[in-house]
Amino acid sequence: MRKFEKSKKLDYVCYDIRGPVMDEANRMIAQGVEILKLNIGNPAPFGFRAPEELLMKMNSNLVHTEGYSDSRGLLSAREAIVKYCRKKGIEEVGTDDVYTGNGVSELITLSMQGLLDSGDEILVPSPDYPLWTASVTLAGGTAVHYICDEAADWYPDINDIKSKITERTKGIVVINPNNPTGTLYSKELLEEIVKLCRENGLIIFADEIYDRLVLDGLVHTSIASLAPDLLTITFNGLSKSHLIAGYRCGWMSLCGDKSSAKGYVEGINLLSSMRLCSNVPAQSVIETALEMEEETKKLLVPGGRIYEQREYIYEALNQIPGISATKPKAAFYVFPKIDIKRFGIYDDEKFVLDFLRDKKILLTHGGGFHWEKPDHFRVVYLPEMEQLKSACSRLSDFLTYYRQE
């Protein structure tokens, strides 16, 4: 019988946030086992609810959003995004430079498919959000990982970036606020990255989906605001900040000087048109959503749920012998380090798989974020406090007897 294998284009593509460990979790769930999922930033299952005003707005818009929109998106949505960009100090962007998407994920893939040929390179952080590496690879390019330094609050290592720029490098991905580490980059660091891009003619791909989820009174700086002379593609959306991940509502904005990228823009327009348009009902609430940020801010201050859960998970993890964690300043992830010598750990995927089977908690191993050493894992701290306390207690107990060697 004829056999059909997966495309060879997928040989080096992975997305371990929903990979083999998730498959095992699903097998266990099918058998009736209750699993606490700390592997994915999905607010709804943990009791977070979108603002009622937003839901009412979408409901009232349904009758008007039954047809296709312009391939870039509704004009009202794009105008609101341009207004938001200017609020962030980004002036070189107009409505024709904005593309709405079924989440940012779709647009990441589109942006790589429109740019890369075989042999082209894109600088991607390590650790990364793995869709970036997967999209570069699937488009035929090569993801070259630059190191983010845990000892320097997970900031990118500028010298490492410099050492990895070649004549084949077309751009750099900057994830700020960062997933999986939760760090927030300073303006000074971003200016250093901009300087490198200016010197080497690189496109900046700015993943800023968490820019409205910043803690401790800190301020997010959009890298595009520092580089009006460079092409910067900024990615953002409502999935996290407005708690509507399932609605799939994202966008990308082409900012700065686009004069040297006319062919690339043609490619983006072609790919955007091929999928006709993104989810129109979700687009219809972008304007309203970007004018209502107070609901989100309530979660980020003392007494707010995300703030208090961040405080707890940071302290609790650092109290477990053999675990250390840098305090996240944004988003809702922490990327703790595990003492691999203490526990004889040589395979981080095996570690999270063993933990899943023993304690019924699903994590994502550091290798899933293209971190080379088997000494990190990511925790999503969205669950209610009691669930987080239970998870930390179970992890602490597990590590009293776990050894891989």
Q: How would you describe this structure to a colleague?
A:
The chain has 405 residues and is an alpha/beta fold. The protein has 2 domains: 8-48 and 300-401, Aspartate Aminotransferase, domain 1; 70-292, Aspartate Aminotransferase, domain 2 (3-Layer(aba) Sandwich), CATH 3.40.640.10. Helix content is 36%, strand content 15%. The strands form 4 sheets. An 8-stranded mixed β-sheet has the order 2-9-8-7-6-3-4-5. It has a 3-stranded antiparallel β-sheet with strand order 11-15-14. The longest helix is centred in the middle third of the chain and has 14 residues, at 187-200. It starts with 19 loop residues before the first helix and ends in a 7-residue tail after the last helix. The model has no long low-confidence stretch (mean pLDDT 94).
